[in-house]
Design brief:
The complex is a heterodimer of chains A (282) and B (351). Chain A is mainly alpha-helical and 282 residues long. The longest helix of chain A is centred in the N-terminal third of the chain and has 32 residues. Chain A starts with 5 loop residues before the first helix and ends with a helix. In chain A, helix 1 crosses helix 12, helix 7 packs across helix 9 and helix 11 runs antiparallel to helix 12. Helix content of chain A is 69%, strand content 0%. In chain B, 41% of the residues are buried. Chain B contains 9 helices and 18 strands. In chain B, a hairpin with a 2-residue loop joins strand 4 and strand 5. Chain B has 351 residues and is an alpha+beta fold. Classes of the chains: A mainly alpha (282), B alpha+beta (351). Chains A and B meet through helix 8 and helix 9 of A and strand 6 and helix 2 of B.
C-alpha cells in the first residue's frame, strides 16, 4: 500500500468482505443444513441459524449411512476416496518428477519430441478419452478395484511440465559440481534436485490431492460394488437414490465431512511449503 | 600433486563450431597456470575439458601419467571452483564440504578432520552450520574453495572464481588464493578474463585467442615481450599504443627507426614507457601533439595525446598529476628499447 487512505482502506475492506461472504455462504448453508432435523429443508424456508440435530445427523451418517438407498456408512467411502486420492497424487508426483528429470538432464534421441508428446496430452481432458480408457481398464479386469480407480488418472502432463520448468531454473553448475563431487545421476536427483523441489512438490501435492479427491465421473463409471464407492459419488447416490425425497440434512452432513480431508491436506502442506520457501534458495 | 599434459586438444561443437583448436601445453607439478583471453576465446571450454565436463573431440589429456580423456570428472582427481560457486543451497556449509567425501565413502572421522582443517584454513569455521544463503559473497567464495580443498586433489581448476565479487574483495581473495596455492603446492589451472588477475596470480600465463594459444610465458615475459599484436593489446592497461611504421618514417619521428627488424610495419609502445622529458639513454621516438584529455587516477594520470594525421589518440601514463593544460602542445619521448616491433599482416612480433 502506497499510502494509508482511511476511506480507501474502508472501501477495500468492504469489497473483500463482500467477496469472502459470497464464497463462504454456500459452505455456511451446508453446515447449517446439516444440523437440522429431516424435513426442515423441504419446507421451503431455509434456516440461517444452527439447529439442534447436529450430533444426531453426523452419527447417523457415520454409523449407518443410508442403507435403503444403497449407500454404505461414509467411513468406508472416505477411506476409499483417501486411498484413491493418495495413489493418484503420489503416482502423479513420482512419475512426473522422474520424466521431467529425464527430459531436462539426459540427452536421448527425440527428447524434444517426447516432451511435446507429453505436453500434448494436456489438451485431452479425462472426459474425452473416457470411453477407450474404460474399455482398456475393463479388459484388464480392473473394474471395482483401487488400481482401476487410480492408475488411469496417474499420468500428468501438467506436473511434468511444471517440474521441467523448475529444473530448468536450477543452475547447471550445481549438476556439474555434483559430478565433480562424484555423484551419479540418481544420487544428484536424490541428494540435490529432490530437496530443492520440496516447495514445488508440496504445492503440486495439494493440487493433485484435491484433483484426485474430487474425481466424480471416473469412479462413477468403473465402480459398481459399494465396497469401492468414493465419497463424492456417494453424495450423488444419496441425492438420487431411493424413492423418497433426498434427505438433505444427511447429504449436507456428508458434504461437510467430505470437504474436511482436502482442507486438512491444505493446512498441513501449507506449513511445509512456507517452510520450503523460507529455507531454500535457488 | 600432478602434472597436466595437453597434447593437440581440439573441441568442435555441433555445427562445426571450433572452440578449441590444437592446444598443447605442459603444466608442471605445483604450477599455477592462468588462462586468459577475451570472451569466447575458448579458455573456459579448455578448463571444462580438463575437468571432464566437456568431451574432448581429439587430442590427449593426461593428469599425472594417466590419460583421462574418457574418465568422469569424479575419477580425474581434480576439484573445481565455479564462477557462481555452485554451492548446494539446501545443505549446510559442513555438508557442502563433506558431500564429495561422503560420495567417495571416506570414513566419518577422516571427513570430519578434513572439513575442520579446511574450515580453519579458510576462516569459515564459525559458519559450518549455516546455509549458503546466510553467507556473504566472500564467505560463499571461501566455501567453494573449501569444497575443493577437502578433496586434496591432484589439481585445482578455477573458472573465473572472483568475477562475482566486488572490487575490494576481489583483490583480497586474489591474494588469499595465491597464498593458499603456494602453501599447498597444488597444480592449478585458473581461468580469467581480467588481465590484472592473470598478471598477478600466474606462475605462467597462457593468452588464448580464437581457440589457439597466442603466447605462454611468465607474466613479466608476456608483459615485456608480447609475442603478438593481440597479446600486446590485451595484457596491460591502458592498452599498448600501436603506430604504423610508415607514419613514423614520414614524420621523421626518431633516429633509431632504421634499427627495427625487417618485416616490421607496426610499432608498439606501452603508455608507461612514454616520458615527458627526453630519455636519458637517448630518444628512440619523439611524438609531438596536443593534450586532448588528462585523466587523473590518483597515483597516476593518463594522458590522451592527439597527434597529427592519426584519429586514434596516443595514451601515455605518468606518475602523479602533471601540471599540464588540456589543449596545450605536448611532446612524448620513448627510449629505443621501449619499442615493440610487429608485423601487422601476421600479427606476430618481428624481433
Amino acid at each position: 500500500m502506497v499510502e494509508n487512505n482511511r476511506w480507501g482502506n474502508l472501501f477495500a475492506h468492504l469489497v473483500l468482505i463482500l467477496g469472502v461472504t459470497i464464497v463462504v455462504f454456500p459452505v455456511y448453508v451446508a453446515l447449517i443444513a446439516s444440523t437440522h432435523p429431516p424435513g426442515t429443508f423441504v419446507r421451503g424456508v431455509m434456516p440461517l441459524w444452527p439447529g439442534t440435530h447436529g450430533w444426531e445427523n453426523y452419527t447417523t451418517v457415520i454409523t449407518e449411512g443410508r442403507s435403503r438407498a444403497g449407500t454404505p456408512p461414509i467411513g468406508g467411502m472416505l477411506w476409499n476416496s483417501f486411498v484413491m486420492a493418495m495413489a493418484i497424487t503420489i503416482g502423479k508426483l513420482s512419475i512426473s518428477i522422474l520424466s521431467a528429470f529425464a527430459i531436462v538432464y539426459f540427452k536421448f534421441p527425440f527428447r524434444i519430441f517426447f516432451f511435446w508428446v507429453i505436453f500434448l496430452t494436456l489438451m485431452l481432458p479425462v472426459e474425452v478419452r473416457i470411453v477407450p480408457t474404460f474399455q482398456v481398464v475393463a479388459n484388464l479386469g480392473m473394474l471395482n478395484s483401487f488400481a482401476g480407480l487410480s492408475i488411469p488418472l496417474i499420468a500428468s502432463a501438467t506436473a511434468t511440465f511444471l517440474f521441467r520448468q523448475f529444473f530448468m531454473t536450477v543452475p547447471e553448475e550445481l549438476m556439474e559440481a555434483a559430478r565433480v563431487d562424484g555423484a551419479g545421476p540418481m544420487k544428484f536427483f536424490k541428494d540435490i534436485l529432490l530437496p530443492l523441489s520440496i516447495t514445488n512438490i508440496a504445492a503440486l501435492f495439494v493440487i493433485m490431492f484435491i484433483y484426485g479427491w474430487n474425481q466424480y465421473l471416473w469412479p462413477l463409471l468403473i465402480t459398481t460394488d459399494p465396497e469401492y464407492y468414493t465419497i463424492v459419488m456417494g453424495i450423488q447416490r444419496m441425492v438420487t437414490g431411493g424413492d423418497s425425497e433426498p434427505l438433505w440434512h444427511l447429504v449436507m452432513a456428508t458434504v461437510v465431512l467430505a470437504a474436511l480431508p482436502p482442507v486438512l491436506v491444505i493446512l498441513f502442506m501449507q506449513r511445509l511449503f512456507v517452510k520450503g520457501l523460507t529455507e531454500t534458495e535457488k | 600433486m600432478a602434472t597436466i599434459t595437453m597434447d593437440d586438444l581440439h573441441k568442435v561443437y555441433q555445427g562445426n563450431v571450433q572452440a578449441v583448436t590444437g592446444i598443447s601445453l605442459d603444466i608442471a607439478d605445483g604450477e599455477m597456470i592462468v588462462l586468459v583471453g577475451p570472451s569466447g576465446c575458448g579458455k573456459s571450454t579448455l578448463l571444462r575439458m580438463v575437468a571432464g565436463l566437456e568431451t574432448i573431440t581429439s587430442g590427449t589429456l593426461k593428469i599425472g601419467e594417466r590419460v583421462v580423456n574418457n574418465l568422469e570428472p569424479a575419477d580425474r582427481d581434480i576439484a573445481m571452483v565455479f564462477q557462481n560457486y555452485a554451492l548446494y543451497p539446501h545443505m549446510t556449509v559442513y555438508n557442502n564440504l563433506a558431500y564429495g567425501l561422503r560420495n567417495r565413502r571416506f570414513p566419518k572421522a577422516e571427513i570430519e578432520r578434513r572439513v575442520r582443517e579446511a574450515a580453519e584454513m579458510l576462516e569459515i569455521a564459525p559458519f559450518l552450520d549455516r546455509k549458503p544463503r546466510q553467507l556473504s559473497g566472500g564467505q560463499r567464495q571461501r566455501v567453494a574453495m573449501g569444497r575443493a580443498l577437502v578433496r586434496e586433489p591432484a589439481a585445482f581448476l578455477f573458472d573465473e572464481p572472483l568475477s562475482n565479487l566486488d572490487a575490494k574483495l576481489r583483490v583480497q581473495m586474489r591474494v588469499e588464493i595465491r597464498q593458499l596455492q603456494r602453501r599447498l603446492g597444488t597444480t592449478s589451472l585458473y581461468v580469467t578474463h581480467d588481465q590484472l588477475e592473470a598478471l598477478t596470480m600466474a606462475d605462467r600465463l597462457v593468452v588464448l585467442n580464437g581457440g589457439v594459444i597466442e603466447q605462454v610465458g611468465t607474466p613479466m615475459d608476456v608483459y615485456n615481450r608480447p609475442a603478438s599484436v593481440f597479446v600486446a593489446g590485451f595484457i596491460g592497461s591502458p592498452a599498448m599504443n600501436m603506430i604504423p611504421l610508415d607514419y613514423l618514417r614520414e614524420g621523421g619521428h626518431g633516429a633509431v627507426l632504421g634499427g627495427v627488424p625487417s618485416g616490421t610495419d607496426l610499432v608498439g609502445v606501452r603508455p608507461d614507457e612514454f616520458t615527458l622529458e627526453p630519455a636519458p639513454e637517448g630518444d628512440g621516438l619523439v611524438l609531438e601533439g596536443m593534450l586532448a584529455l588528462l585523466e587523473p587516477a590518483g597515483a597516476e594520470s593518463h594522458l590522451y595525446v592527439q597527434i597529427e594525421g592519426r584519429a586514434q589518440p596516443i595514451v601515455a601514463r605518468t606518475g602523479g598529476v602533471p601540471k599540464l593544460l588540456e589543449g596545450a602542445p605536448i611532446t612524448l619521448h620513448a627510449a629505443p628499447g621501449a619499442m615493440h616491433p610487429f608485423d601487422a599482416a601476421s600479427g606476430r612480433r618481428t624481433g
